[in-house]
Amino acid sequence: MDEWEYLPTFIKANVKSKDTKAFLKEQLPDVKKPPRYVAESMMPELDELGSQGWELVHMEPVADVGKKGDVLFDGGGRQWSNTYFCVFKRCKAEQVERVAPVYTPGTPAHPRQQSPSVAQPTPPAPQQPSQMGE
C-alpha cells in the first residue's frame, strides 16, 4: 500500500520579483504588463514543487492569513485575495523509484514499473548430485 506525505502551504499570486516578471513575459508574450496578482505568477513556485515530486491536490483562495497562521474565511462583504491555500502530496521517498525525466526505450514508463535492464537476482546454482556409495 502506498504511503503519502503532505505539504499544506499558502502561495501568493504576485508579480513583483524580476524572475517572475521574466517568466510571465515568456509565458504571456501578448500581454505587455500583466496584472499584479495574475494567477500565472504562481507557476514558477508550483513548477518547482512539482519537480520535487509534489502533486497539487487542493487549492482554494483565502481572504487573509493571520500572523499566527490562522485563516480569515469571511471578512464581511466583498473581499479580494491573492493568497491560496494549497495542499500537495507525494509518495514517501523510500518508496519512490526515480526514473529519467524523459522517456527513452528500455526505461520504465511509470515509476512503479521495473526496468527490464535492472539485474534480477541470480538463482542459486544447482547442487551436484551426491556420489552414490559414499
Q: pLDDT average, as an integer?
A: 76
The secondary-structure element order is: EHHEEEE
Spatial gap, N to C terminus: 52 Å
Biggest sheet overview: 3 strands, antiparallel
Q: What strand line-up does the widest sheet have?
A: 1-5-2
Low-confidence stretches: 98-132
Strand percentage lies at 15-25%
Radius of gyration: 25 Å
Helix content: 10-25%
Using brief descriptors, characterize the structure shown:
about 130 residues; alpha+beta; 3-stranded antiparallel beta sheet; two-stranded antiparallel ribbon; 5 strands; about 20% strand; flat
Describe this structure in words.
It is a single chain. By secondary structure, the chain is α+β, with helices and mostly antiparallel strands. It has a domain at 4-92. Helices cover 14% and strands 22% of the residues. The protein has two helices and five strands, in the order βααββββ. The strands form two sheets. Strands 1-5-2 form a three-stranded antiparallel β-sheet, covered by helices on one side. Strands 3-4 form a two-stranded antiparallel ribbon. The relative contact order is 0.19. Mean pLDDT is 76; it is low at 98-132.
